[in-house]
Write a structure and sequence with these properties.
Strand content: 15-25%
Low-confidence stretches: none
Distance between the termini: 26 Å
Strand order of the largest sheet: 1-2-7-5-6
Number of strands: 9
CATH architecture of the largest domain: 2-Layer Sandwich
CATH class of the largest domain: Alpha Beta
CATH superfamily of the largest domain: RutC-like
Number of domains: 2
CATH topology of the largest domain: 60s Ribosomal Protein L30, Chain: A
Order of helices and strands: HEEEEHEHEEHHHEEH
Mean pLDDT: 87
Helix content: 40-55%
């Protein structure tokens, strides 16, 4: 069965590439091999924290590893443009945040290995190492990196410009969906002195307009638009802001991303500006989904 048909049958939607928060790139291609940097487990858009054998069960660790495998396939898609071009999943390296007595790292790793084999068939069967770790970044319970081989004659990965454009599309879909299911609750606040739901959505629209202007060389100098409160108008504004941003990104080459710009009074490259804003928006998205779930509102993609 083709990879995308299998994913559909499993009700799996692949995420976009999350720009890294440290000094590395999400993937690198050398010849026919694609090396994907370590990805940590997430739950509700935030790091899934805890130690196996102390805070989490083996079954929970296995679920976390399965979620990482989905994220890794999203990066593979961005790196190749087509998951059916994958000749083989070559190897996984699995790090499990473990208590001193926990010794079922191999069973946790099976969460990723079994899903990859199910999606890719024999091409998904791979070599693997699984280790217990004293700690993992952000206190996450599991981290996994992956090596894959692509078939001969496949085009090179689309690069940063395509990855950013894809990520903008993912953020647009999720923020617009969140704006829809949160209709009637825009005045909710997690606590006093913090942004309301509507404030977060309006911030995203404002950031996208600012970033699109910086990328296209036409920074906005006018007054900020009035805050949006109507749910339908909010959804349209979010869609339009991301569409405008995607157009600005599409006009750039990977070389253009190294051009200097100024954002929030700071000197940086266009790539750094995109990374800064998208990291901020992914953080807002994770917090918003967690807040929605805690109040009985569950976006379909986070079930």
């Amino acid at each position: 069965m083709p990879v995308y048909e299998k994913l559909k049958s499993l009700a799996i939607t692949l995420p976009g590439v999350t720009p890294p928060v440290a000094a590395f790139v999400p993937f690198l291609r050398s010849g026919n091999l694609i090396f994907i940097s370590g990805h940590i487990a997430k739950k509700g858009g935030q790091p899934w924290t805890g130690k196996l054998g102390a805070d989490l069960t083996t079954a929970e660790g296995k679920e976390a590893a399965r979620g990482i495998a989905i994220d890794l396939m999203g990066v593979l898609e961005a790196a190749t443009g087509n998951l059916d071009s994958i000749r083989r999943i070559v190897k996984l390296l699995v790090l499990v945040n473990s208590s001193p007595t926990f010794n079922e790292q191999h069973l946790v790793a099976n969460g990723a290995s079994e899903l990859l084999a199910e999606v890719f068939g024999d091409r998904g069967k791979h070599a693997r190492s699984a280790f217990g770790a004293a700690q993992i970044p952000f206190g996450s319970c599991v981290e996994i990196e992956l090596i894959a081989e692509v078939a001969d004659g496949q085009s090179k990965p689309p690069g940063w410009q395509a990855a950013f454009a894809n990520d903008a599309g993912t953020l647009s879909e999720k923020f617009t969906g969140l704006a829809r299911v949160m209709s009637g609750k825009y005045d909710w606040k997690p606590a006093e002195g913090v942004r309301s739901v509507a404030d977060v959505f309006n911030l995203i629209v404002k950031e996208n307009g600012l970033l699109a202007g910086v990328l296209s060389g036409t920074p906005s100098t006018g007054a900020s638009p009035a805050p949006i409160t109507d749910p339908e108008n909010m959804q349209e504004a979010l869609k339009a802001s991301y569409l405008n941003l995607q157009k600005a990104v599409a006009a750039l080459s990977d070389n253009d991303l190294q051009a200097p710009v100024k954002l929030f009074g700071r000197d940086m490259t266009k790539q750094s500006a995109l990374t800064l804003i998208f990291n901020d928006q992914h953080e807002h998205l994770g917090q918003s989904i967690a807040y929605a779930r805690n109040n009985g509102v569950v976006p379909p993609w986070s079930k």
